[in-house]
Amino acid sequence: MKLTDTHTHIYYQAGSPELALQMERCLASGIDRLFLPNVDLKSVDLIKETVAAYPSNCFPMLGLHPCSVQDDFNSVLNELKQAIDDTKIYAIGEIGLDLHWDKSTLPFQQEAFKVQVQWAKDLDLPIVIHCREAFDELFELLEDLNDNKLRGIFHCFTGNLEQAKKAIDYGFYLGIGGVVTFKNAGLDKVVKEIDSQHIVLETDAPYLAPVPFRGKNNESSYLKYVAEKVADLYHISLEELASITTQNSVNIFGV
Predict the structure, then answer these.
(1) Which whole number is the average pLDDT over 73-92?
(2) So what's the pLDDT on residue 48?
(3) Mean pLDDT computed over 100-123
(4) Of the four, 141, 191, 207, 213, which is 20 to 30 A from 169 by CA?
(5) For residues 107-111, average pLDDT
(6) Cα–Cα distance between 91 and 128 in angstroms, integer?
(7) What's residue 216's pLDDT?
(8) Phi, psi of 159 (to 5 degrees)
(9) pLDDT at position 151, please?
(10) Confidence at 47, pLDDT banded by 50, 70, 90
């Protein structure tokens, strides 16, 4: 069985013994493919260090997280683009819109998103989208940016069925994480209505730990709890779900 964590910040453990311990637990659970989303300039080197330590298991993505977008975003993007030009990456991400913490930066977030989507198109790469309390604003952007090069993942998807179908119509997979195990989140009902060909699995570690670890630090080895829940929703074996979702990740990332 081979499981793929399409979104993990395990690189936060770079330079500490904890990284090796977490990777050991991942590999013991059949989780041997981990995709690492960048958030800001500081995390670039952490990702590179982690990938260098586990080149067969860890795959880098680079992008500017919407919560890291401020009025100096153009200069930050210029530095980030240099890193992208010097690094083998598999997606632009995580990028998107976040209106939970600071709505005042929305114009900056929108512009940064458009710039980075163009990078992805120029490099023929997928994008990994972070969307929090901003579905309407994000879909408005995607409507303008939509073409045959636009593709990727709606990371940590927590929308309703209508939003799920809309994301899929734009050519995106849905990243399903620990929230699907939460009793009253409602994501389980949405997933049941979506064909498994449209989803991938993720942890977003160290955030959003699944039941039975809800409220604690998450890690990529906990992906098996997400996978078990989703397999149960589809009434298929864990091995079959692992095969489907890992193949979906290969379709997206090309590796």
Answers:
(1) 97
(2) 98
(3) 97
(4) 207
(5) 98
(6) 7
(7) 98
(8) -80, -175
(9) 98
(10) very high
Residue type, 248: N
- Give me 90's structure tokens: 């598999």
One-letter amino acid for residue 67 of the chain:
C
**DSSP secondary structure string for all residues of 63-120:** ---GGG--TTHHHHHHHHHHHHHTS--S-EEEEEEE-SS-GGGHHHHHHHHHHHHHHH
Which token pair is 97?
A: 């819109």
Cβ contacts of 220 within 8 Å, gap of 6 or more: 5, 8, 10, 22, 26, 31, 34, 203, 205
Residue 29: exposure state from Cβ atoms within 10 A (0-12, 13-18, ≥19): middle
Give, in order, the Cα–Cα distances in Å from 117 to each of 26, 89, 150. Answer: 31, 14, 8
Q: What is the pTM of this model?
A: 0.97
Task: Provide, rounded to the nearest whole percent, the portion of the chain with pLDDT above 70.
Answer: 100
Contact 157, 168 (CB under 8 A): no
The Cα 173–Cα 38 span in angstroms is 19
Cα dihedral 243, 249, 253, 255, rounded to 10, equals: -20
